[in-house]
Design brief:
Length: 305
């Protein structure tokens, strides 16, 4: 455990919370384009819904009607057009009956603005956090698989946070989960940082040893293939449940009960195996094919939690 803590500390030392804090502090001007006052109000009400009075007032200051048409107006970072007017090709179109389409397209088109958009406008929050959790869980699944395969070098995989000198995948997974905690807090309009989130970070580090012990048990008791998938599925499930728990905590002030968390973990574990097989089909198609055709291998990994 002491060695594990040293490795985790080394990994965390490469992670700077200021990066996420700076993203959260970025002010994004959103230009609104419409033909009537009613249409403008409809877009503004959608974007400013479910915000506290103070946040609503601050967020309203980032909305600009018809930017560029009034002398002295600043240029908008993002432009949204009401469906009732002519818009440029590939523009972001607001449709009152399907506003989520505009949200999804905006996050896809401006991924670097995900944190400030989620912090400033509630409709962006859930989709962005959901994507953050899914991405982090997949990254941890990929890293867990890569470190278990002798012919795959983790440092050459396109993981944004992979560092070749990490002494263990536990250190990487923990660091990536802490980064996820920073991003979820920032997107939820909460304080970001090691001191500001010390209880959450302590929980992440503490749970890391539980996931590691469970993964070692899986690898030790199950033949190579089944243990490989089980280890990767644990990395996926542990990361996803942590992300969902943080999201709920920052949203309502408390997290899931034990029974709810167990149900979430069981579902995430099954999903993690499917994700692991897809990734394995890219890293080692021969092993992926074995799981697709060998019922014993599937059964061995399916019954383990």
């Amino acid at each position: 455990m002491i060695e594990g803590l040293i490795n985790i500390k080394k990994a965390i030392s490469t992670l700077n919370s200021n990066t996420v804090r700076e993203q959260a502090g970025q002010r994004v001007l959103v230009g609104l384009h419409a033909s009537t006052a009613e249409s403008y109000a409809r877009m503004e009400n959608f974007l400013l819904a479910e915000l506290s009075p103070a946040r609503r007032h601050e967020s309203a200051g980032t909305l600009v009607r018809s930017p560029g048409l009034i002398l002295g107006q600043p240029a908008a970072d993002i432009n949204i057009y009401d469906e009732g007017i002519v818009a440029p090709a590939q523009a972001l179109i607001f449709r009152p009956d399907k506003p989520h389409l505009m949200v999804e397209k905006t996050l896809a088109k401006y991924p670097h603005l995900g944190v400030p958009l989620a912090k400033t406008f509630h409709p962006f929050r859930d989709p962005f956090i959901e994507k953050t959790i899914a991405t982090t869980a997949r990254e941890n699944t990929l890293f867990s698989l890569a470190t278990a395969l002798p012919d795959i070098i983790p440092s050459v995989i396109e993981l944004p946070w992979a560092v070749a000198e990490f002494a263990s995948d536990t250190a990487f997974l923990t660091m990536n989960q802490i980064r996820m905690a920073f991003v979820i807090a920032a997107a939820s309009d909460r304080e970001v940082g090691y001191m500001e989130q010390k209880s959450e970070i302590a929980a992440v580090v503490g749970s890391a040893f539980g996931w590691r012990a469970l993964a070692r048990q899986v690898v030790g008791k199950i033949p190579f293939g089944g243990g490989l998938l089980g280890k990767a599925a644990i990395a996926y499930a542990g990361t996803k449940v942590l992300g969902l728990s943080l999201d709920k905590f920052y949203g309502v002030g408390y997290t899931y009960a034990r029974e709810e968390r167990d149900a979430l973990y069981a579902d995430a574990y099954r999903q993690g195996k499917r994700v692991a097989i897809k990734i394995l089909s890219l890293l080692r198609p021969d092993l992926a094919e074995k799981f697709a055709t060998d019922p014993d291998a599937r059964a061995t990994s399916a019954g383990h939690r």
